[in-house]
Specification:
Order of helices and strands: HEEHEEEHEEHEEEHHHEEEEEE
Number of domains: 2
Shape: flat
Structural class: alpha+beta
Helix content: 10-25%
Number of strands: 16
Mean pLDDT: 95
Radius of gyration: 20 Å
Strand content: 25-35%
Strand order of the largest sheet: 12-13-14-11-16-15
Low-confidence stretches: none
CATH topology of the largest domain: Gyrase A, domain 2
CATH superfamily of the largest domain: Probable tRNA modification gtpase trme, domain 1
């Protein structure tokens, strides 16, 4: 079984050590992150995590992160592209607060174990594996959390950099292969999983992403909240991030337009050829009045797209 097949049907490990790791300490750490993110950090219990967006005052998304409550600190796990942006963004708003931010990226290794059988496979290592989504358990000198980037099942192991090689050796001894970045991209698109930096950026508003698990609508004020609430109350969303399939042998580039007749109705954000499905899988922002099961769109010479 190759690494792509393992990731989509059994289990594979992913080197995620390029992701940004930011630690927040101090008595006001929860207050700061609560006021700066879209989710309810104040109610985040110890040894649990949540997913959140960070917005501009105009409601545009500048970063996303998994936020983990480790008891004595709050830990932000973000995309490589947003590591410096998010650190600077948060640091700018620390005025008289008792909060210290530390960029821990270079000190820690991040290993993802993903696939339908990932959890049962890793349970043979004798570690206490988290049982529910976003639950955190100690792992060596670090921790592990139920989080996935490519599909519904995954475990993210975050440990000091010195422990990385040992964990990889354990996983490979179990016959678990390493998934390449290409494998990861294909499988996440097969499962319709968006990624910040490709499918989500500062161009977009929260509701347009359809990732509302990142948002608490009952938490009160936060930066950008006025725009999120205005859209929620008025229902003014004109485009939505949507999984599509494409009949074609090559993946179209990001920015390729989707058309009905001579009218642009959408734009592709990321695409890849799926060996298993024998077609292209992609994510695109589509105008809401054109989203219906079975709807078809022209990509010109790039082929024809449809909603599965």
């Amino acid at each position: 079984m190759n690494s792509y097949e393992a990731l989509r049907s059994r289990a594979a490990w992913i080197d995620l050590s390029g992701r940004g790791q930011i630690r927040a300490t101090g008595e006001d750490r929860a207050r700061l992150l609560h006021a700066m993110s879209t989710n309810d950090v104040n109610r985040l219990e110890p040894w649990r995590g949540l997913y959140a967006f960070f917005l501009t005052a105009q409601g545009r998304i500048i970063a996303d992160a998994n936020i983990y409550n480790l008891g004595d600190s709050l830990w932000l796990d973000t995309e490589p592209e947003t590591r410096a942006i998010l650190f600077s963004h948060l640091d700018k708003y620390i005025i008289a607060d008792d909060v210290t931010l530390e960029d821990e990226t270079e000190n820690w290794a991040v290993i993802g174990l993903e696939g339908p059988h990932a959890l049962e496979t890793v349970s043979t290592l004798g570690q206490d594996v988290p049982e529910t989504d976003s639950e955190i358990k100690p792992w060596g000198a670090g921790f592990a959390v139920r989080v996935a980037a490519t599909g519904p099942v995954g475990l993210r192991i975050i440990v000091p950099a010195a422990e990385k090689s040992g964990i990889i050796a354990q996983l490979e001894a179990l016959g678990i292969p390493q998934a390449s970045p290409e494998d990861v991209n294909i499988v996440r698109l097969e499962n319709g999983r968006a990624r910040y930096g490709e499918d989500i950026s500062e161009r977009y508003l929260v509701q347009e992403t359809q990732m509302l698990s990142a948002v608490s609508f009952n938490k009160g004020c936060y930066l950008g909240q006025e725009i999120v609430e205005r859209i929620r109350s008025r229902g003014q969303v004109h485009r939505l991030l949507t999984p599509i399939h494409i009949h074609g042998a090559e993946a179209p580039k990001a920015g390729t337009k989707l058309r009905i007749g001579d009218k642009d109705v959408g734009e592709i954000t990321s695409a890849a050829v799926s060996p298993a499905l024998k077609e292209v899988v992609a994510l695109a922002y589509l105008r809401t009045d054109n989203i219906a099961k079975g709807a078809r769109f022209s990509l010109g010479e790039a082929g024809e797209a449809y909603l599965p």
